[in-house]
Amino acid sequence: LAEPVFQRLTGPCKACLADAKLSSGDVDEVILVGGSTRIPKVRELVKEIFGKEPNKSVNPDEVVAIGAAVQGAIISGDVEEQMVLLDVTPLSLGVETLGGVMTKLIERNTTIPTEKKETFSTAADNQTEVTIHVLQGEREFAKDNRTLGQFNLTGLPNAPRGVPQIEVAFNIDANGILHVTAKDVATGKEQTIEIKGSSGLDSGEIDKMKADAESHAEEDKKRRELVDLKNQGDALAYNARKTLKEQGEKIEASDRSNIESAASALEEALKGDDAEAIKKAMENLEQASHKLAEAMYKQQAAAAEGSAEAPAGGQAPPVEPKKDDGDDVIDAEYEVKE
Asked: Domain map of the chain by residue range?
């Protein structure tokens, strides 16, 4: 009758090893805490999981109180420091990004105090504000995790999508207080939110969220892959149209038409959830765009060759200043929720 209850003990032990990136052979001692660990079956499970007998040198009823007393004495300075107690984040922390996904900045079990920064950008042209949605949890999508806070960074200058640089910083101090700051690199404008008791959950709720993430892991992975694919397709279509607008005069009208048609087909495919159709449309657009890339490189090579063949002993014939094609190099971008 009690077997299902005993088996529930194995999950947290294995998760602890996985989070620490250790194997059972790396563990020196297993200390039992709490009167229930006197049960023979519990000790048998410990030996089964860790491959060694549990340490029985301490009283399981007193071990927590003794540890707290020692730590209190160290903090008060009554005893010379002999150990360091490190607190960790029980769950991952992050923000919502394009497609409703959660982008993690601080992974669970990170030692605190800690700080992590990441740079994001806008998801639409002329976007003058971004919403910073602060999340806690292990699921892939924002709606499945716990909201800790939300604020807007406003006053961004009008610019094409992907150009603004928004630096988001997560800082957890020694007291466990989370400070989240969003700063526009160009203007220096910033907004900050302070979240006290960023956990606010008891151990049971934390374990439930972890178990929930594990049970939905495969489903979440497939959904996340589809959203990531759609984001890639959207960026590809946007960049293709942008490059075509800036450099389209270098290719034949028929080639321009092929690129426009392929971009439209991809945009239509992105309205659905057929991953294979999206991949095929992306491949077609990439193939159609090759003509434009070839024309751009040929023109650049011809200009360089003409400059190298200037007559010796005389002044090279004047040439028209070459337009800077730097905008043709498109960097992949992380995008903040619209």
From this structure: 3-85, 88-215, 221-307
R_g of the chain, CA atoms, integer Å: 29
CATH for 88-215, options being 2.60.34.10, 3.40.50.720, 2.40.50.140, 3.40.50.620 = 2.60.34.10
**pLDDT tens per residue across span 215-272:** 999 999 999 999 999 999 999 999 999 999 988 888 888 999 999 999 999 999 999 9
Give the residue among 226, 312, 310, 326 at the shortest CA–CA distance from 272: 226
CA distance 37 to 40: 8
What is the rounded CA–CA span in Å between residue 117 and residue 103?
12
How far apart (Å, rounded) are the C-alpha atoms in residues 98 and 92?
19
Q: What tokens appear for 8 in the block?
A: 């529930």
Q: In the structure, what pLDDT confidence band is assigned to residue 302 with cuts at 50, 70 and 90?
A: confident
Q: CA–CA separation, 185 vs 207, rounded Å?
A: 38
Token code pair at residue 51:
């491959």
Type of residue found at 65: A
User: Tens digit of pLDDT for each residue in 272-286?
Assistant: 999 999 999 999 999
Q: What is the largest CA-CA distance in the chain?
A: 100
**Spatial CA neighbour of 118 closest among 70, 153, 165, 167:** 167
pTM (whole model) above 0.85? no
Q: Which candidate, 169, 170, 159, 147, places its Cα nearest to that of 121?
A: 159
If one looks up domain 221-307 in CATH, what number appears? Answer: 1.20.1270.10
Look up residue 178 and give its two tokens. 């989370």
